[in-house]
Prior knowledge:
The chain is an alpha+beta fold and 117 residues long.
Amino acid sequence: MxxxxxxxxxxELVKAIEKHGFLPQNLEFVDEIPNDPRRASRVYKxxxxxxxxxSIPREDKVANIEFLFARFPEETAKLDDDFKFVKQLVLYExxxxxxxxxxxxxxxxxxxxxxxx
Length: 117
């Protein structure tokens, strides 16, 4: 089974979060998301921690894109690229910290907006 190895993008992801005042230690690469092994990423808002799985199975990427397609059909084509997919996940989680009380939809929208910046 094909997987996305996210740690290869560490430097670029750190640069992306640093643009918004976050530090490298705010981003953690983990083997599994605690209490939810099927998730690819997670955020702990109060602790300002963004977790992303070290290896994301291709089927999890497909499931995530299918979920986003319902809300952002024009944007999801960008996520065919593995780096952009991983960056969108990290930005999405980060915006849950920045915009603490916003909906998932709003955080995803901001993540897509900043994806190519």
